[in-house]
């Protein structure tokens, strides 16, 4: 079905009929020919040919036509409204401003936005910059054609009797049952908007973005009562129209709930599976509106209205009314943590019971994509090991990024997990929205994709890797971990590092962290200087060989501590003769006794695909290790 003709369009059609006796061939043949001759635009041309109003416009008037490619049509389902792709004024790319009126009945607006990389979007469609064409028809009227990568979709009604003219966001919600919105109802949220007397916010003229929760998001009977005037404000981004394709990933936008006491931002982000989400971040809250992030999936995006654009979301923003366990369960079907929840349940459910028993808890939850690695397939079948790995993602504390930053003030933050003797190591770089948070656990370094997803009893941070499932060799870990950069640099001088990529061997590598090497500068200034000079690579190599154990299996810190109970010293086969150590456990931390020195183990058991790394606080070194003959 095509959109109904406007009166002005019908007038143009009559004028065309009058002109036919003077111009038997279409006056707009130049642009029509351009369309007809381009095989990549054939589907839109076919629809254009069948629309007399569109042909009239081409023949007699200035216009801009937004033409979807055939590929765009392959992704499109439903009716195509040809006149919604046409505006009766000619606009080059540089002349497109904020919005233009389409030629569809009622002249609904088309919104123009600019992407960060210079792309121009009309609603949710990107204009392909190199393919725009400008011509003059036989009437001397200027005409412009822009090629776009998506079919433009106007707001439409189920019945032709519904008045669609000038439908702002409030009128949109009032008539939602009569519109083509699928199974999405809006009655609950609309009732709260009316109850809180916030209709004027949704009726306000201009160009705004409205986030409207669907009825499905109010399953919890008490949730609707939490939607007060400030929460409603937090669902509106004023004076900015954001369509999903043009949205900047995770770029905070100021909501209407941004004032002295309450500050709420809203941002959009897309998961790798293509699902779009929106999140509110209550930066500064109050008793009714706690700090933290709330995620909502966009269930129907990019609905253009007279005063902006509407996105329907699966739950209200700002409201924190579920526990961590409930949040995981809510995301168990098609949510952002579906796979994580599946693995928890496959491991027997004890992990979920453990989470539920904690009064304060923080979860590092791997995204769905994080589980798509071959090395994890066999581990998932080992229920005991999988339980240990899952517990490595659970912290018995309420830990948001600000608290991590405080712990990280003077050093990388070390946080215990519910997995006995397992620690996570956090690092925060940058400030505000540019901050990048990384976490290391069991040899895996993960980046936090979505931080501070707030729940009533804690936080969820979504990460990009599964902790405790190694995915890189000893060399790969050494070359990328910022805490081990000095050891890596020293090993590069003498090609000592070359062997560490060998997956046929099993290494146990005692790696001094960078601060450990810095301590040697105070103890042995002359020796320290030579360690990092290429001319003395031979001595550096000999020293590193003492730290590298090669055997048919790896030695965990627990193994070494057990072995130390029955002997004065454990003898380990290294590249440089053998290494004699004793390992003790003190207050839950490991200490290495070597040559009358006590060396703390800062990070034990960093697993790699071909071995294990123990990060130590000081090198296994004496001053005599760096001796240069006077000859």
Key traits:
alpha+beta, seven-stranded mixed beta sheet, elongated
Give a verbal description of the structure.
This protein has 631 residues and is an alpha+beta fold. The chain is built from 21 helices and 29 strands. The strands form 5 sheets. A 7-stranded mixed beta sheet has the order 10-9-15-14-13-12-11. A hairpin with a 2-residue loop joins strand 27 and strand 28. The longest helix has 14 residues. The radius of gyration is 32 Å and the shape is elongated.
What is the spatial order of strands in the main beta sheet? Answer: 10-9-15-14-13-12-11
Question: How big is the Rg?
Answer: 32 Å
**Helicity level:** 25-40%
Taken from the alpha-carbon principal axes, the silhouette is elongated
Summarize the structure.
The protein is of the alpha+beta class. It contains 21 helices and 29 strands. Strand 13 and strand 14 (292-305) form a beta hairpin.
What's the SSE blueprint?
Blueprint: H1 7-20, H2 29-37, H3 42-49, H4 52-60, E1 63-68, H5 70-75, E2 86-87, E3 99-101, E4 109-114, E5 120-122, E6 125-126, E7 133-136, E8 142-148, H6 169-174, H7 187-195, H8 199-203, E9 208-213, H9 229-233, E10 236-237, E11 253-258, E12 263-270, E13 276-284, E14 292-305, E15 308-313, H10 324-330, H11 338-346, H12 350-356, E16 361-366, H13 377-381, H14 383-391, E17 394-395, H15 401-407, E18 413-416, E19 423-429, E20 436-441, E21 444-455, E22 458-463, H16 474-480, H17 485-493, E23 506-512, H18 514-523, H19 525-531, H20 537-547, E24 548-551, H21 557-564, E25 570-573, E26 578-586, E27 589-594, E28 597-608, E29 611-616
Parallel strand pairs: 1-8, 9-15, 16-22, 23-29
Antiparallel strand pairs: 1-2, 3-4, 4-5, 5-6, 7-8, 9-10, 11-12, 12-13, 13-14, 14-15, 16-17, 18-19, 19-20, 20-21, 21-22, 23-24, 25-26, 26-27, 27-28, 28-29
């Amino acid at each position: 079905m095509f959109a109904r003709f406007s009166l002005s369009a019908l007038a143009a059609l009559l004028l065309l009929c009058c002109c036919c006796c003077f111009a038997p061939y279409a006056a707009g043949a130049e642009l029509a020919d351009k369309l007809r001759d381009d095989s990549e635009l054939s589907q839109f041309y076919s629809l254009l040919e069948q629309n007399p109003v569109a042909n009239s416009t081409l023949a007699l008037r200035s216009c801009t036509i937004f033409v979807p490619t055939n590929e765009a049509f392959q992704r499109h389902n439903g009716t195509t409204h040809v006149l919604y792709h046409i505006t009766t004024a000619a606009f080059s790319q540089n002349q497109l401003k904020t919005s233009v009126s389409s030629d569809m009945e009622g002249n609904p607006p088309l919104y123009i936005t600019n992407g960060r990389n210079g792309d121009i979007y009309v609603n949710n469609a990107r204009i392909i910059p190199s393919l725009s064409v400008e011509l003059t028809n036989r009437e001397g009227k200027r005409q412009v054609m822009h090629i776009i990568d998506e079919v433009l979709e106007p707001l439409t009604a189920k019945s032709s009797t519904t008045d669609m003219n000038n439908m702002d966001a409030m009128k949109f919600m009032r008539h939602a049952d009569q519109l083509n919105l699928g199974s999405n109802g809006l009655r609950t949220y609309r009732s709260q908007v009316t109850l809180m007397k916030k209709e004027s916010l949704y009726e306000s003229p201009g160009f705004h973005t409205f986030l409207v929760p669907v009825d499905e998001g109010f399953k919890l009977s008490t949730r609707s009562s939490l939607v007060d005037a400030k929460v409603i404000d937090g669902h509106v981004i004023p004076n900015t129209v954001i369509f999903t394709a043009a949205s900047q990933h995770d770029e905070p936008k100021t909501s209407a709930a941004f004032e002295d006491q309450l500050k709420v931002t809203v941002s959009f982000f897309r998961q790798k599976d293509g699902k779009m989400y929106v999140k509110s971040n209550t930066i500064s809250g109050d008793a009714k509106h706690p700090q933290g992030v709330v995620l909502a999936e966009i269930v129907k995006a990019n609905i253009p209205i007279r005063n902006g654009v509407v996105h329907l979301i699966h739950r209200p923003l700002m409201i924190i009314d579920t526990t961590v366990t409930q949040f995981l369960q809510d995301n168990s079907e098609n949510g952002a943590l579906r796979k994580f929840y599946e693995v928890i349940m496959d491991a027997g459910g004890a992990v979920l019971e453990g989470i539920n028993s904690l009064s304060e808890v923080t979860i590092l939850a791997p995204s769905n994509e994080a589980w798509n690695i071959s090395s994890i397939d066999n581990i998932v079948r080992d229920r005991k090991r999988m339980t240990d790995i899952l517990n490595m993602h659970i912290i018995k504390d309420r830990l948001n990024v600000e608290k991590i930053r405080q712990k990280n003030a003077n050093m990388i933050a070390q946080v215990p997990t519910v997995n006995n003797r397992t620690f996570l190591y956090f690092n925060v770089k940058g400030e505000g929205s540019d901050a990048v948070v990384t976490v290391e656990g069991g040899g895996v370094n993960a980046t936090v994709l979505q931080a501070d997803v707030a729940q009533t009893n804690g936080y969820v941070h979504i990460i990009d890797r599964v902790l405790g499932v190694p995915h890189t060799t000893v060399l790969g870990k050494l070359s990328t971990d910022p805490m081990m950069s000095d050891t890596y640099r020293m090993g590069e001088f003498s090609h000592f590092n070359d062997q560490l990529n060998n997956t046929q061997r099993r290494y146990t590598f005692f790696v001094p962290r960078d601060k450990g090497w810095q301590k040697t500068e105070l103890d042995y200034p002359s020796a320290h200087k030579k360690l990092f000079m290429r001319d003395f690579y031979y001595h550096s190599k000999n020293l590193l060989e003492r730290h590298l154990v090669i055997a048919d299996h790896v030695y965990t810190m627990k193994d070494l501590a057990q072995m130390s109970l029955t002997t004065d010293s454990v003898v380990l086969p290294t590249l440089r003769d053998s290494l004699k150590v004793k390992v003790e456990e003190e207050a839950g931390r490991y200490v290495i006794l070597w040559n009358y020195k006590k060396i703390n183990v800062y990070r034990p058991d960093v697993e790699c695909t071909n071995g294990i790394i123990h990060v130590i606080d000081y090198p296994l070194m004496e001053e005599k290790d760096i001796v240069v003959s006077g000859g």
